[in-house]
Design goal:
Elements lengths: L1 E11 L4 H4 L20 E2 L9 E4 L10 E15 L5 E8 L5 H10 L2 E3 L1 E3 L2 E21 L5 E7 L4 E6 L34 E2 L2 E4 L7 H6 L3 E9 L5 E8 L3 H11 L3 E3 L1 E3 L3 E3 L1 E13 L1
Parallel strand pairs: 2-8
Antiparallel strand pairs: 1-18, 3-6, 4-5, 4-8, 7-8, 8-9, 8-10, 11-16, 12-15, 13-14, 13-18, 16-17
Length: 287
């Protein structure tokens, strides 16, 4: 019996971070919220107070019929700056679904009373846990065509965790990723400040589906996809740079869009976007 075997290999390109930053991400925090790594970030304790969570921006929820309700928890890392604004937001425990995008939007709209040290406001590193309830809403577009989309069925519930707390873990931790990233030698260096970029690490890397047509035709081989891993750890702008078979090319892109990463880190502390390629290897083996 022939069985399916699909593997993926992520390779970090030597492209500069500056070039990657020219690509616009689909999810970005407010411009004012990004600390950009230019202010000192403290840990809570030793005279540094805990920032107080004040409010968040309400997100759009489902208005019509909503089915297939699902619950999940997303954990994000962030810096609350001296103005009480969130920045450097990236995944610690993603779900690998559209719910991750809602979590990023929610935390981007959060506002805090900043932490202080000796009475002066300072930036601190925190984690935010979000409990999300989503569903699939069915509706008709302007032409009357039936459509569906994942929506929030209620506002996210948020819980702040400081570095003084044990590091949080996701309720549904992903298995060890099948994808591998080539380490250090090709990690791009940053000319200014003498820093360098640590490659992104996959947190979820689901398998691509082998299409019925490709399986029947016995198509095997490697499809190569280029993409940006943005500063939040989301895949952006995937494009085929080595085609294998139309159905398998699309299957590879669909899988990669569900990848989530700990983003590349400049000087080990500042998340930055980088360019990578993903090799998706489609193989059929005899049992």
């Amino acid at each position: 019996m022939r069985t399916l075997w699909i593997t993926t290999l992520l390779l970090v390109l030597a492209a500069s971070v500056a070039a990657a930053q020219q690509t616009t991400s689909a999810i970005q925090p407010d411009q004012a919220s990004s600390s950009g790594g230019h202010e000192k970030v403290c840990d809570v304790g030793g005279g540094v107070t805990v920032p107080e969570f004040l409010s968040t921006t309400a997100l759009e929820t489902a208005l019509g019929k909503c089915k297939d309700n699902q619950k999940g928890k997303v954990i994000l890392s962030l810096v609350v700056d001296a103005n009480g604004l969130p920045g450097n937001i990236y995944f610690v425990g993603p779900l690998g679904t559209d719910a991750d995008k809602f979590a990023l939007r929610a935390v981007s709209g959060d506002r805090f009373k900043p932490a202080t040290l000796n009475g002066a406001p300072v930036a601190v590193h925190e984690w935010m846990e979000l409990n999300l309830n989503t569903c699939v809403e069915h509706f008709k577009d302007t032409t009357g065509k039936k459509e569906s989309a994942v929506r929030l069925s209620s506002q996210p519930e948020q819980k702040v965790r400081t570095l003084a707390s044990p590091q949080p873990e996701a309720d549904n931790p992903s298995p060890l990723p099948r994808a591998m990233i080539n380490p250090a030698p090709n990690a791009p260096h940053i000319d200014r400040a003498g820093g360098w970029v640590i490659a992104p690490k996959p947190l979820t890397s689901p398998e691509a589906n082998y299409t019925k047509e490709a399986r029947k035709a016995g198509i095997t081989g490697i499809c190569v996809v280029s993409l940006i891993v943005d500063a939040q750890g989301m895949p952006q702008n995937p494009r085929i740079i080595k085609s294998l078979y139309p159905g398998l090319d699309q299957s590879a892109i669909d899988a990669i869009l569900r990848y989530r990463f700990k983003p590349a880190m400049k000087n080990g502390v500042e998340p930055v976007p980088v360019q990578i390629t993903v090799e998706v290897n489609f193989q059929l083996y005899e049992r």
